[in-house]
Amino acid sequence: MEDKALIHFMKENPEGGLNQVMSLYAPFVKAIIVKYLGCEKKEDIKECIADVFIKLWRFIGNFDESKGSLKSYIAVIARNEALRKLKKEGKYLSDLNIDELEIGIEVDMVSEMGRKINAKLVQEAIEALKEPDRQIFIKRYFWGQRIKEISKELRLEEKFIENRLYLVKKQLKGKLLEKGVIL
Description:
Elements lengths: L2 H10 L1 H24 L4 H18 L10 H19 L23 H16 L5 H9 L5 H8 L3 H21 L5
Helix pairs in contact: 1-2, 2-3, 2-4, 3-4, 6-8
């Protein structure tokens, strides 16, 4: 079933549509959550998966097909839920390997080798950012911090941070496209 049809089905028949989406994407969501939380805490994983689909159901109206696929939208929700869970437990992404993280950009994952090359290119592009852009970007997209928190920590205006994030994402996208990463 295509994204448009699934979304329409979810809006017309929320229970049936959500069941359809869950049957299609539950293994995908679980893989993302396990990537962040690990596989030891089965109850936390189940709870997080449920939270992802509840959020999807509540915010399906926010989905914009022009910005990406339903699968990528679900992936972002799953990642954010896993990060919230980690943060709630007092754990932060700085303890994780940067190569294993996703920053919301869909890269060409045709092969494991391609994935590793793309991850390295993304990492290099982020490391090449100047301060405070690099710090702002990492705090927002890797640590999942809110703009308000970043503003307090770095003593910068919230609007400045929002503008820098917009410009940095645009800059990163350009650099990654130049290097052959498919977005």
